[in-house]
């Protein structure tokens, strides 16, 4: 059974009228915003993009990037080169020719007793001077130690023989001499006294052999005047304390003797060593150039460093049990540090002054000393050959003093 309306057909509803009115209002509102508000936004640069009205004559579309600029003119695209050279690349290009490789050659005997030279190690060096037809290179003592011959290598892998002009164990410096005709660049010396912690630094050298010659690493100056113990005879006791610049610029095997330079391209240090432990990264050291220059000049002119000579074999009191201080050395309780003399070299300044084995030295020129390093630093940094030094010491518990005239260090 069907149902239907008695007034069928029904009256149609007016849906178009309901839609048309909101659309009309939206169009009018949009036109108002475009006509009145858009010019205001453009005038005060409130839009996130640039609006160009019309087309200027000769205008071109430009798309820029970090490495290049692409310009559009009609249908043609053209790559425009951009100079991306920096201060660092300019410095490296200028300084690198003055940093060379150093090859340590030592004689070896074969099975049939034939002697031939072989490479025992490689390092780096810095050309710091040309005088007439001779050029001079500074490197580390440990780079050329025990060498029978030394060769200098350049960036093009050419080699030339060099002569060892002089070498010094305590400062780890050596000077080499070669024919100046092979040299194109001499490095400019700076000052290590003026460096600041945190300033950038570059290390240039030949890490891991000559195949990586001219390698550059960048870092900062991490510390000034770091005191690093040195054990030359590998007996577990420090023989010297090197004062060095600390940097986090990578210094790897082969970098030794290379250049540490500042952002002006000036030499501020001679790369020397790093802390080689698996748990340590980014701790390298360089010899300050201000300390190196006097040593370099002596090595160049004299072949060795002349130092005051005392003539004792001595050890720090801390190297023996404290119970022996009173029992064997008969020291009073007020003595807390010093060095004891194991032996005296005949005809040495110490022998001439009457010092004896088992005397305990506690002060030099009125300054208390703690260990053997203090003795060497006072001798080598504060005294000169021929000067007098006042020594305060204990013998069998009795405090004594003597003045000694220092002679030159015997090699």
TrEMBL record:
Instruction: Tell me the keywords, alphabetical order.
Output: Hydrolase, Membrane, Protease, Serine protease, Transmembrane, Transmembrane helix
Report the Pfam families cross-referenced here.
PDZ_2, Trypsin_2
| A Gene Ontology molecular function term of the record | serine-type endopeptidase activity
Gene Ontology terms describing biological process: proteolysis
InterPro entries referenced in this protein's UniProt entry, alphabetically: PDZ, PDZ_sf, Peptidase_S1_PA, Peptidase_S1_PA_chymotrypsin, Peptidase_S1C
Report domain PDZ positions. 296-372
Q: Which PROSITE patterns match?
A: PDZ
Q: Which sequence ranges are marked TM in the entry?
A: 20-42
Q: Which family does it belong to?
A: Belongs to the peptidase S1C family.
This protein is called what?
Answer: Serine protease Do
